[in-house]
Amino acid sequence: MTEPLPEFPYHPDPVATGAVVPSDTTCVCCGQARGYLYTGPVYSVDDLADRLCPWCIADGTAAGRYEATFTGGAVGDDVPIEVFVAVAGRTPGFPGWQEPQWYFHCGDGAAFSSAPLRV
């Protein structure tokens, strides 16, 4: 049995978006097989694709150890550095056909969701 997934305020349901999938693979960062693996983009010198668990992303261990980020870019003004760090280094990213960007508004990050837009 796996422990509950960590919470990601800016990516509330990474399983629904496909960024995190069930897996028995051992995380290269913590050395544990926790039942889930991150499958989204990783920007790092090291090849970390499909090798990190969500827990190492959530607590910042993966970002710190590998100087990794999980989003391709960030767009926003007047956003505290702590918010940029949380989004880039402690939030699962998402794939896109072009390099995805994370958006910010009112000094905070936007939450990513796979839910369809309602107009």
What does this structure look like?
The chain has helices at residues 54-58, 61-66, 81-90; strands spanning 20-22, 36-38, 74-75, 102-105, 108-109. It has 119 residues and is of the alpha+beta class. It has one domain (20-109). The strands form 2 sheets. Strands 3-4-5 form a 3-stranded mixed beta sheet, with helices on one face. Strands 1-2 form a two-stranded antiparallel ribbon. β4 and β5 (108-109) form a beta hairpin. The longest helix is centred in the C-terminal third of the chain and has 10 residues, at 81-90. The N and C termini lie far apart (40 Å). The model has no long low-confidence stretch (mean pLDDT 88).
Keywords:
119 residues, alpha+beta, two-stranded antiparallel sheet, globular
Distance between the termini: 40 Å
Structural domain tally: 1
What portion of residues is helical? 10-25%
Strand content: 5-15%
Radius of gyration over all CA atoms, rounded = 14 Å
Q: How many beta-strand runs?
A: 5
Q: How many helix segments?
A: 3
Q: How would you spell out the order of helices and strands?
A: EEHHEHEE
What's the SSE blueprint?
Elements lengths: L19 E3 L13 E3 L15 H5 L2 H6 L7 E2 L5 H10 L11 E4 L2 E2 L10
Parallel strand pairs: 3-4
Antiparallel strand pairs: 1-2, 4-5
